[in-house]
């Protein structure tokens, strides 16, 4: 086995060994395993069966991560993307009234398009021409959106007819559990403990058992054989025909765009940390990495989950010495084993997963430093983009207004030549989107 792993993943060449890769895989799993809890919780809000999404989340994660491991030999893990699952559930299904079956069809179409443009250099070309201000603002806006949803799910922010929003009951069962989980995660992140989000969710779940709180369902066992009949409720349920409706073209593009920059940002960020970039700042095997992401997305839609994307939590495994695809194989094995712990996963209340959304949102805010605030032609479009996403409960609206205002302000201020022609085209397309819809 040692010789097989050495030959397959070239461990010695990359300065690592089996033990190091196993530790790295375990670390990455611990830091991203919250998705097992959070993704079914979010997609079930859109009417999808929780148990079916639970299985689809795990199988989709395994597919994407193994594709990355064997196509690139990089230590990156993939899973249903945070932000993209919120867009799927709250903007597309609940906001626009699109059925979740059609929304899965949209994700599949997006994945197929990604497979095509990952084979040809179109995807890299798009990335290179988009202004950094908009790349950063989209990430920040998604972070605010995720945190906002977490606050709502915890009951910490509630509806108010006079002011639209107001603070909720901090001392309700949900409020106490959510704030406790947030405190635990904050402490553990500060102490740089691996798996801070996972431990915070588990700690908050236990607190939910305390007398006077009692929001955590009764414990009904540790393990159970997966009921794959549950998976049949979402497997192959995607509506591709409905997704091809021209009125949904803007939604398809929104998924494409968000997934594009989420993946590329993660790949570049983690690769910079580990030294995978070449002397020109390019990532070798970038096309293969993007292809793995695209296959994961298309396959995930078939399985019954939202867009699969590369996880920034992969950096935790890299920090533990992970250098090859063996790290991803370990992550995949651990996700497979988690299939058998559904009774344990099922007791986690929504208030315990809400802090995970808030923490992930806070981690995405640091990209605001990449915006040139001293240049108002950069700052204003970026601000409009990032603030529109949470305020309109729509990632698509924020992206659209960002792409409309950026070239417009540059053009009116005499800086039109700084903008690539493709950005003007995208801006016009978004204007037409608002007119059509």
Protein model, in words:
The mean pLDDT is 88. A two-stranded antiparallel sheet has the order 1-4. A two-stranded antiparallel sheet has the order 2-3. The chain has one domain (13-358, 368-373). It is mainly α and 437 residues long. The protein is globular and about 65 Å long. Helices cover 67% and strands 3% of the residues. The protein contains 21 helices and 4 strands. α4 (50-72) packs antiparallel against α14.
Task: Specify the overall morphology.
Answer: globular
How confident is the prediction overall: mean pLDDT? 88
Spans of at least 5 consecutive residues whose pLDDT stays below 50 are none
Count all strands and give the number. Answer: 4
Largest sheet: 2 strands, antiparallel
Order of helices and strands: HHHHEHHHHEEHHHHHHEHHHHHHH
Strand arrangement, largest sheet? 1-4
**Annotation field: number of helices:** 21
